[in-house]
Amino acid sequence: MTATPVATPAEVHAERLRGVAKSGGISLIGAVASSFLGFLLVVLVSRGLGASGAGAFSVAVAVSMTLTVVGRLGADTALVRNLPRMRELGRDADIPVAVRTSLVPVCLISTAFAAALWILAPHLVPLVFTDGSDAASVGLLRGAALVVPFGAAGFVALAVTRGLGTIVPMTLVESIAKPVFRCLFVAAALVAGASTMGTMSAWAAPAILGAALSYWAMRRSMRVVRRTGPVPSAVERRAIGTEMWTFAAPRGVAALCEIAGMHAGIILTSALAGTDDAGIYNAVLRLALAGTLALQALRLAIAPQVSRMLTAGDTDGVERVHHASATWIVLLSFPLYLIFAAWPVQLLSLFGHEFTAGAPSLTILSLALLVNLGTGNVSTILLMSGRSGLTLGITAGSLTLGIALTVALAPHWGVLGAAVAKGIAVVFENVAVTLAVRRTTGVTTLNRPLIAAIALAGACYGLPALALLAIPGIAMTSLPVAIGTALVGTAVYCAVVWRLRELFQLAALTAVVPVRLARRFRRSAEPLGRSGAEPLGHSSTAIDTVIDTPKGSSR
Fold first, then answer.
1. How much is the pLDDT for 533?
2. What is the 3-state secondary structure (H, E, C) of 176-221?
3. Do 398 and 257 meet the contact criterion of CB atoms below 8 Å apart?
4. In angstroms, rounded to a whole number, what is the distance separating the alpha carbons of residues 502 and 50?
5. ∠483-488-490 over CA atoms, to 5°?
6. pLDDT, tens only, 35-80
7. What is d(CA 62, CA 66) in angstroms, rounded to the nearest whole number?
8. Whose CA is closest to 368, among 312, 440, 424?
9. Cα 365 to the chain's mean position, in Å?
10. Are 166 and 217 in contact (CB under 8 A)?
11. What are the residues whose beta carbons fall under 8 Å from the beta carbon of 168, sequence distance 6 or more?
C-alpha cells in the first residue's frame, strides 16, 4: 500500500494563507460594492433632499441601525465564535440547538424594539430633531422601526453561515443585494418627487427581502452539519443556551456601544447643532468609513477560523495570521486615508458645495482611522478568545468618552467638534484593545512587514502632501494638483510594493486572481527566493501559520 504524501509545514501554512486570502477576497468584493453603493446612496439623498433633508434622513437611519444592532443581542458574534468551536470539538449535534437558542430571542426582542419605537416616536422626535416635531418626523422614525426585526433576524441568520464556513451568503445579501435595491428604490422615489418620508420607505423596503434571503441561506448552510450522535437532552439544551448567552449578553451590550458610538455623533450633532450640521457630519463619516473595506473584509473572513485556532491552543498561529492580515490592511487602506486627509475639499464637493465645510473634520477622522487600520483586527482576536466582557468594558469607555466630548464640543464647533470627539474615541479604543490582546493572549501587533508598509505609505502619500503645503503658491485645493500628486505617489507605491512582495506575503493573494495570473506571479517570485531570501514559511518575519478552513466550507 502506498503511503499518502504528507505536506510539509511550509506547504500547509502557505495553503492555509491562500485560503484566508480567498475568503477575504470574496468579502472584500462585497465590502467594495457595499461601500460604493452606500456612498452613492448618500450622494443621492444629499443631492435630492439637501443638507437639512439629508440630515433628518440620516438621523432616522441612525436610530434604525442602532436598534437593529442592539436587537441582535450579540447572538451573531456568539454564533461566529461558538459554531466553529463546536465543530472543532465534534459537537455537531449541538449546532441546531445553538442556532434556535440564538435566533428565537433575537426575533422576539427586535420585534419588541420596533414596536416600542413605533409607539414612542412622537415623544422621541423633539429629542433627536432640533427643528421638527411634526407628523413627517414621526413618520420618519416609524418607517425606521419597520426595518429593525427584519434586519436583526436576517443578520443573525447570516452569522450561522459564517460560523459554518462560508462568507458568500453574507457578501451577497448584506453587501450587494440590499444596498443595490436601496439605491434603486431611493433613486426611484427621488425621481418621483418623494418627500423625506417617501425616501425613508424606499430605504426600508429591501430589509424584508434581505431577511427572506438570509433565512434561505441559513437553511442551506445547515446541510453541512453532520447530524451524528445523540440528540441533546433538555438539560444539555439549557447548557448550550447558557454557553451561547453567557458570551452573547456582554457582546450585545458592547454592540450597542459600538453602534451608538458610530451614530451618536449624528444624533447629537442634530440635537446640539442642527440638522444641517448633522447632514454634513453624516457625509464626512460615510466617506471616512469607506476606506475600512479591507479591515471589514478580513474581519469577516478570519473570525471563525481564529476561534478554531484559539480552541486548539494555537496562539502562535493567531499572531502570524494577524500580522499577515494587518499588513495587507495597511497596504490597501493607508494610501486612501492619506489622500482623504490631504485633499478633503475635493472629495466632499462630490456631495455638494455646502458639504465642503466638513473638510477639516474629514482630515481629523482620516488621521484617527489610521490608528484603527494599523492595529488590524485586534478586536476580533479579543472576542474570539471569549473575552466579551472585557470588550464591553473598553467599548463602553470609548462610547462614554466620545459622547462626553461631543456634548462639550459640538455646540461650539458643530461638525468639527463631533469629528474631534469621534477621532479621540477611535484612538482610545484601538490602543486599549491592542494592550488587552497583548496581555490576555500574548498576541503582538507590530512586526517588520507591518512597519515597512506603514512607512512606505507615509513616504509615497503623506510626505508629498506635506511638501506641497510648504511650497508657496501651490493651492492644495487645486484638483489637478491633487490628482497629479496621487497618481505619482501611487506609481511609486505600487512599484515598491511589487519589489517587496515577498516581505509582504503577497503570494498568498494569488488565491483571489485567475489561475493563469497566479502562476505567473508565483514564478516571478522564485528568483527572490533563490537570491538569498528565505522561502515562505521559514522567514523569521513570514506569516507561515494560519487558520484552517472550516469543515464543510464552500471553499
1. 34
2. HHHHHHHHHHHHHHHHCCCCHHHHHHHHHCHHHHHHHHHHHHHHHH
3. yes
4. 49
5. 95
6. 788 878 878 887 777 767 777 787 788 888 888 988 998 888 889 8
7. 6
8. 424
9. 16
10. no
11. 26, 161, 554
